[in-house]
């Protein structure tokens, strides 16, 4: 492990030697200089993690040293050393870019504490910048697999709206990649340096949803022991993504409409509006027009959300992307195994309609990687639904029981697949067809490995 390199500048030779000794005993690699000019020259010749410089230096003072080293390397940690009487100057130096200051005389412990705190903070800042860069690179539109003309049209539209602040509604079946497109819009927008906050509307209990979205003030309800910022405030300056917005309760639909119109919220129990600078993206796998006709979704909110809708086609309508998606997931789950897909396996995967879309395909590949004992993925490690079409078990209103028997789970799986295929993956209509609530259908398809 490389020792942190420190440049120490002070014209007091005794203090310079003592401080250098303390730093070296603490594990640092120390270079010293007695003048600002000599220190700056050494800084240009080497690579340093931190510069500690006395403020009162002859000719080139500590402020000038600070300005020069920050100009050469903005990320280097800079700490000013000052006498007690010039603390105001040290505070001024911090406003010009110094990370902290030490007041003479200081102990070895004070020296270590200030230096380690500044280095740790800078490391976290650089790591945060690096992670943001990785996110922005990960969610570029070019990283989204789009080999079909339909998906290329989707990405073209998404790329066009990324630079604006227009509200976007992303439509598509579960598992088609709606959140991936939403993230790509955010990370290719002027708001990319700020937060991307995701809210999965059905996953939050009704009693907590308003507080989760808008926050609350202390004492507004039992358990509200302090003020709390909601998701909208957390997204300030950035983007909030409301997933499965079709499940939002009517009373919250009214409040969301106000956010879209006024760009402000009120916390639960609060009486003061809070102005917001955010962008709203939303997604749903439901037919919102049908929900509007049924009185389950506000018409005015619907038109506010559908200024620019983006419709993501299901995987069955872009099967030419399946081989590329398989390769992508093999890299993700079996990078070191170098697995290949057998021809008959690929045929099954290309023939299957994937009612669970890309998420179901990813689950199938992850399962296959775990179960495969050789270097080839064969049909026997695929999920059961890929090896048996629904008509082999369910025919019309009758169920054909194989001689070897069949599990109730498999019969239920096939019934769910038939319903989902019949209505092109529309879960609301499939649930109605099966005479079960939509949330029960969602639970069963996940439990049985369809999604």
Mean pLDDT: 85
Helix content: 40-55%
The low-confidence runs, each spanning 5 or more residues with pLDDT under 50, are none
Q: Tell me the number of structural domains.
A: 3
CATH superfamily heading of the largest domain: P-loop containing nucleotide triphosphate hydrolases
List the total number of helices: 19
Beta-strand percentage?
5-15%
Quickly give the CATH architecture of the largest domain.
3-Layer(aba) Sandwich
Entry keywords:
Rossmann fold, Helicase, Ruva Protein, domain 3, alpha/beta, 5-stranded parallel sheet, 14% strand, 451 residues
Please describe what this structure looks like.
This protein is α/β, with parallel strands linked by helices. It has three domains: 5-134, Rossmann fold (3-Layer(aba) Sandwich); 149-313, 3-Layer(aba) Sandwich (Rossmann fold), CATH 3.40.50.300; 316-447, Helicase, Ruva Protein, domain 3 (Orthogonal Bundle), CATH 1.10.8. The protein contains 19 helices and 16 strands. The protein has helices at 13-25, 36-45, 62-72, 87-95, 108-138, 149-162, 178-187, 206-214, 231-234, 250-262, 288-293, 299-305, 322-333, 343-351, 357-371, 384-387, 408-422, 427-433, 438-447; strands at 5-9, 29-33, 50-54, 77-83, 100-104, 168-171, 196-200, 239-243, 264-265, 274-275, 279-284, 308-311, 340-341, 376-377, 394-395, 398-399. The protein has a five-stranded parallel β-sheet with strand order 2-1-3-4-5, sandwiched between helices. A five-stranded parallel β-sheet has the order 7-8-11-6-12. It is elongated. The mean pLDDT is 85.
């Amino acid at each position: 492990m490389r020792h942190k390199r420190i440049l120490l500048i002070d014209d007091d030779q005794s203090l310079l030697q003592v401080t250098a000794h303390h730093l070296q005993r603490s594990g640092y690699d120390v270079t010293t200089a007695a003048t600002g000019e000599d220190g700056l020259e050494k800084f240009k010749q080497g690579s340093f993690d931190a510069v500690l410089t006395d403020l009162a230096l002859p000719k080139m003072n500590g402020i000038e040293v600070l300005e020069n080293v920050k100009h050469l390397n903005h990320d280097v940690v800079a700490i000013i050393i000052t006498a007690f009487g010039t603390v105001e100057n040290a505070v001024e130096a911090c406003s010009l870019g110094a990370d902290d200051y030490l007041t003479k005389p200081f102990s070895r412990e004070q020296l270590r504490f200030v230096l380690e705190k500044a280095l740790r903070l800078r490391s976290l800042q650089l790591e945060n910048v690096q992670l943001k860069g990785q996110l922005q690179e990960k969610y570029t539109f070019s990283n989204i697999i789009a080999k079909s003309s339909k998906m290329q049209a989707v990405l073209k539209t998404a790329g066009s709206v990324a630079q604006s602040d227009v509200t976007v509604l992303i439509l598509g079946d579960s598992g088609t990649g709606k959140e991936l497109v939403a993230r790509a819009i955010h990370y290719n927008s002027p708001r990319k340096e700020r937060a991307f906050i995701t809210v999965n509307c059905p996953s939050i209990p009704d009693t907590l949803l308003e507080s989760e979205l808008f926050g609350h003030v202390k004492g507004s309800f039992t358990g509200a022991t302090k003020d709390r910022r909601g998701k909208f405030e957390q997204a300030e300056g950035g983007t909030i993504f409301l997933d499965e917005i079709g499940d939002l309760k009517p009373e919250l639909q009214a409040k969301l409409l106000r956010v879209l119109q006024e760009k402000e919220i009120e916390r639960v129990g609060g009486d003061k509006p809070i102005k917001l600078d955010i962008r709203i993206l939303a997604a749903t796998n439901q037919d919102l027009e049908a929900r509007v006709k049924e009185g389950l979704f506000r018409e005015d909110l619907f038109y506010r959300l559908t200024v620019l809708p983006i419709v993501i086609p299901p995987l069955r309508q872009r099967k030419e992307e399946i081989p590329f998606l398989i390769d992508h997931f093999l890299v993700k789950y079996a990078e070191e195994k170098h697995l290949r897909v057998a021809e008959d396996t690929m045929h099954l995967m290309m023939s299957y309609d994937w009612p669970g879309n890309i998420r179901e395909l990813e689950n199938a590949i992850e399962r296959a990687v775990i179960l495969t004992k050789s270097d080839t993925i064969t049909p026997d490690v695929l999920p059961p639904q890929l090896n048996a079409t629904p008509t082999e078990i369910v025919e019309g209103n009758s169920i054909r029981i194989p001689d070897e028997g069949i599990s109730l789970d498999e019969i239920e799986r096939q019934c769910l697949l038939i319903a989902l295929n019949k209505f092109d993956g529309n879960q609301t209509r499939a649930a109605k067809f099966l005479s079960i609530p939509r949330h029960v259908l969602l639970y069963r398809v996940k439990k049985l490995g369809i999604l």
